[in-house]
Amino acid sequence: MSKERILVLSDLQDFSHIVAKKAIELGKTYKKGIDVLHVEDESILRFFKEKTEDSFVKSKAILETMYNDNAEIYCKCGNFIDTIKEHIEQNHISLVIVGFKRERTFMEDIFNGSNLSSIVRKLDVPVIVIKTEDDPDYKNILIPTDLSSSSKKNIENLVKLFPNANFYIEHYFRTLIEDKIKMYGYENKEVQEFITFYGNEAKESLDVFMKKLDIPSNIKITKKVKNYLDITRTVEESIDSESIDLVSLCISTNFSIFSYDLLESSKKDVIIYKILEKFE
Questions:
Q1: What's the CA gap between 212 and 148, in Å, rounded?
Q2: CA 267 to CA 115: how far, in whole Å?
Q3: How do residues 3-28 score in pLDDT, each as one tens digit?
Q4: Which candidate among 50, 57, 113, 219 keeps its CA 20 to 30 Å from the CA of 227?
């Protein structure tokens, strides 16, 4: 574990100094070395070869000022994702940090093929998306779970990354009857009994899931089941600005609609881990 390092991906935009400050604090807190990687795309620089060296010198100087001897600085030219993956494999990287504070939405980034969407979809290590200027004191972490094996692996990995944090695990269930109350004339009592039944079933499923987690007994975990009615409302209710410091997302190769909304709506930093389930 002592050899594992944090990789910060820097685009040298205005938000980079906030990312640098938080990355340095995380590195000190968890006793991990920091690498900072700035990638110049080869498709542009191949036409301006004489400018490449000068660009790297300037970029490295800016980053060295930001990190002040608290990180190893790398400036490379190549395919963006391939260059990052190569660095991860060669330098014992266990966590990637990237900043995201823009006017356009994350959905627009997805459809425009942005670097952030590629990072999230194509890297196999956890990625912290820095969205705030808050101190990176990740004491309380919210983890929505679908009770899958991928979610189990995500929780177990988070416990290793943040061993002193409190974890709030939430499982959402949905009953379609709420949408049909007026149409079919259900009585409120009948509806409540129906919801209670499925709520209890969801609690039992969550209890079974929790017992399968391979985590130390001293880890502080609060579990909760919620009736999922509306994405936006669920997100707003789950992310309490006074208690949650970091939101966890576990994804497969593609984001779900809920994941989109959670990342967009979160007023806190988000950690994303892509885990592919194996089906036998």
A1: 11
A2: 21
A3: 789 999 998 887 899 999 999 999 99
A4: 219
